[in-house]
Write a structure and sequence with these properties.
13 strands, Rossmann fold, five-stranded antiparallel β-sheet, about 350 residues, disordered N terminus, globular, about 35% helix, alpha/beta, 12 helices, hydrolase activity, 3 domains
């Protein structure tokens, strides 16, 4: 069966398609069972069979919903903070030669997700005044890959609805600053920031092929920058600012007494970090998106890449399968060496 982008390149015949063919628009390996069908979007603005809507489905974690019309597809991103958004989504495929690779930080470049989940857990424990509190396995897709505030709002809604996001952020930064200071002084967790196996070879091989590299993270600068610096020092690599062609983070926290930047409402699974690092940071125009590959290990990141209309390569070890976003991936690899083979010469 041809891909939807080949078979229906102008996307004008959706009404005649079955649900399996709709799903194939989201990814060449997508299957019906990868997504849950919906009678309507969660905001009740669109309903299947009404107003030109032919089909609606959502990712397994419920974070992103897809609405199929005769001529186009919309993606609806929910927001724990009350600011959802709709984005147009197009079929996309990988075309050679690869001009750029966009690469996530936490879990993809550096194994640090466990550390930051631990910080969220300690924050929730502080809110509850229960030092023994632990997150459950079912919480993991919702406390990694998104913005700090999204993670904290999830925990508040589930465990301590009488608390505020402002209280949670105060505890979060208190724990973060303490633990980061301990790490920088050689007293903290030694397993906090570990380079992903094969990272140095992967990055250097991309450089040798003259493929541009963009580093993308939903993490705030103050937590993301020490991670990559630590990883590069461990690998005996040069200054990351000089090595990468572009680096983008969620910026600086918006707190009283300091000047913040946009980053808590717009990061993954929204497409803006990936779109900006490619278009502004690397100079890749939208018509060349098929020659860009985004690499992610988290559901939020996979959605962000796909909503930015780039092909997605998932990396094992994160929550992609667990969160029901495997169908958005063009490939899913066990390690970085496998991804090099996909990129080719």
């Amino acid at each position: 069966m041809k891909s939807l982008s080949d078979k229906h390149s102008n996307m004008t015949t959706f009404a005649s398609l079955n649900s399996e063919e709709y799903i194939r628009c989201l990814g060449p390996n997508a299957k019906n069972e990868d997504f849950a069908p919906l009678a309507s979007t969660s905001d009740a603005k669109f309903h299947t069979g009404i107003g030109g809507v032919n089909y609606i489905c959502q990712t397994g974690d419920g974070k992103v919903e897809f609405i199929f019309f005769d001529s186009h597809v919309l993606a609806y991103v929910n927001s724990a903070l009350g600011y959802p958004a709709y984005y147009p989504i197009q079929p996309v495929e990988i075309k050679k030669p690869t001009r750029a690779v966009l690469m996530d930080l936490d879990g993809t470049s550096v194994r640090s997700e466990g550390f930051w989940i631990w910080i969220i857990q300690m924050t929730t424990a502080s809110l509850l005044d229960k030092p023994e509190f632990e997150l459950s396995d079912e919480d993991l897709p919702f406390v990694s890959g998104h913005s700090v505030s999204e993670h904290l709002q999830y925990c508040i809604d589930k465990y301590c609805p009488d608390k505020t996001i402002e209280q949670a952020r105060d505890y979060y930064f208190e724990h973060t600053h303490r633990e980061m200071n301990e790490i920088m002084n050689g007293r903290g967790r030694t397993d906090a920031f570990v380079p992903t196996p094969g990272l140095k070879n992967f990055l250097c091989e991309l450089k040798s092929r003259k493929i541009k590299i963009g580093l993308v993270t939903s993490g705030l600068y103050e937590k993301a920058w020490p991670e990559i610096v630590s990883a590069f020092k461990t690998l005996n690599m040069p200054d990351p600012k000089e090595f990468y062609d572009a680096i983008i983070t969620a910026g600086f926290p918006l707190r009283k007494g300091s000047v913040g930047t946009l980053g808590e409402l717009s990061p993954k699974p929204h497409p803006w970090l990936y779109a900006e690092v490619a278009r502004v940071g690397l100079g890749i125009e939208p018509q060349n998106n098929t020659q860009v590959i985004g690499i992610e290990d988290s559901s939020a990141g996979v959605c962000a890449i796909r909503l930015a209309n780039f092909p997605v390569v998932g990396l094992a070890g994160g929550n992609i399968a667990q969160s029901g976003t495997l169908g958005l991936c063009h490939h899913h690899c066990n390690d970085l060496n496998q991804i090099l083979k996909i990129i080719g010469d």
